[in-house]
Amino acid sequence: KQEVTQIPAALSVPEGENLVLNCSFTDSAIYNLQWFRQDPGKGLTSLLLIQSSQREQTSGRLNASLDKSSGRSTLYIAASQPGDSATYLCAAAEGTYKYIFGTGTRLKVLA
Amino acid sequence: GAVVSQHPSWVICKSGTSVKIECRSLDFQATTMFWYRQFPKQSLMLMATSNEGSKATYEQGVEKDKFLINHASLTLSTLTVTSAHPEDSSFYICSARDPKEGTDTQYFGPGTRLTVL
User: Fold this and answer.
1) What distance in Å separates the CA atoms of residue B57 and residue B34, rounded to the nearest whole number?
2) Do A44 and B93 touch (CB under 8 A)?
3) How confident is the model at residue B66 (pLDDT cuts 50, 70, 90)?
4) What is the DSSP secondary-structure string of B20-75?
């Protein structure tokens, strides 16, 4: 049974810092891995999707990497801003549709 | 990207009543929609997969008679929580797959917060 874990559970950093969020999964046979952002009481916004055959994806200040063999993915946020404060979720896709979500990392960027 | 809406955004009901939550794909036709539940400070758990014109597929441990799913059209899926109890209080989020964009793109709705008194 796939299990997805995220560390740290919470993180508080000063504005401008570069930071790394970690995601690990127990079953390497994933279809893809996706990172989401969730603001309090809101739905999910997809940030980056990495196919199983890919190693990384980049969008603006965000870079996500995937190492299937070790069951790990990282989300790198460069030059963090207060607007980046949110909960970040990673989700591993089993098959084509079913996502198993991690418990999230609550990020707070201090001005 | 595509837009998925949910209605209502929040609902408070008395124990024993039934509550219906709607999930709509606004600018695309979704053959498949998904329903997730999120308890406070926990992650999303897939409840069921809703396929247009056929019965929903429920995840293990989810009572299909309690959580009724209807996907009557290509743009609308509904989740009805029957005889709701306080332990059903949660954040319910739907997602929809746009078949034109390939198999791995799901668009998530803003969620519905259910509080059962």
Assistant:
1) 10
2) yes
3) very high
4) EEEEEESSS--SEEEEEEE-TTS-EEEEEEEETTS--EEPTT--TTTEEEEEEETT
CB contact under 8 Å between A101 and B32, yes or no, is no
Calculated CA dihedral for residues B6, B44, B90, B88, nearest 10 degrees: 110
Q: Which of A4, A93, A102 sits opposite B104 (nearest CB)?
A: A93
Phi and psi for B86 in degrees, rounded to 5? -50, -35
At B91 the three-state DSSP class reads strand
Cα radius of gyration rounded to whole Å, chain B: 13
A63 token code pair: 């870079």
Nearest to A88 by CA among A2, A1, A4: A4
Three-state SS at A36: strand
Contacts of B113 in chain A (CB under 8 A): 41
By C-alpha distance, the chain A residue nearest B50 is A97
Is B60 near chain A, with CB under 8 Å? no
- Tell me if residue B5 falls in helix, strand or coil: strand
In tens, the pLDDT along A27-74 reads 999 988 999 999 987 888 889 999 899 999 999 999 999 999 999 999
